[in-house]
Amino acid sequence: MASPPTGTVTFLFTDIEGSTRMWEHDAPAMQAALARHDELLRRAIEERGGYVFKTVGDAFCCAFPTAPDALEAALQAQRVLFAEEWGIEGGVRVRMGLHTGVAEESDGDYFGPPVNRVARLMSAAHGRQVLLSLSAQELVRDQLPTRTSLRDLGEHRLKDLFRPERVFQLLASGLPSEFPPLRTLDAYRNNLPLQPTQLVGRQKEIAEVCERLSRPEVRLLTLTGPGGTGKTRLGLQAAAELTEEFEHGAFFVSLAAISEPQLVVGAVAGALGVKEAGGLPLLESLENYLGEKHILLMLDNFEQVLEAAPMVTELLSAAPYLMVLATSRIPLRLYGEHEYAVPPLALPDPEQLPPVERLSQYEAVRLLVERSQAAKADFSVTNENAAAVAEICHRLDGLPLAIELAAARIKLLTPQAMLARLGNRLKLLTGGARDLPQRQQTLRSTIEWSYGLLEEGEKVLFARLSVFAGGRTLEAIEAICDAEGDLPVEVLDGLTSLVDKSLLKQEEGVGGEPRFVMLETIHEFAREKLKESVEAEEIKRVHAQYFLTLAEETYPELKGPDQLEWLERLEAEHDNMRAAISWALERKEAELAIRQGGALWRFSLVRGHYAEGRRWLEEALAIDGGESLESRAMALAGAGTLASEQGDLDWAKEACEEGLKLLAHEAREASEANLCLLACLGWVKWRREEHGQATQLFEESLALSREMSDTWWLASFLQGLATVSYSQGGFERATELYEQSMDLFREQGDKRGLAISLGNLAMLVYSQGDLGRAAKLTDEAVALLRELGTRGGVSMGLYNLGWIALLQDDLGRAANLYRESLSLSWDSGLNPLVQNALEGLACVAGAKGEADRAARLWGAAQALHETKGIPRDADFLAEADARTSAVRSGMGEGAWKEAWRKGRAMTLDEAVSYALEQEAAGT
Question: What is 8-181's CATH number, 3.60.21.10, 3.30.70.1230, 3.90.1170.30, 3.30.70.920?
Answer without folding.
Answer: 3.30.70.1230
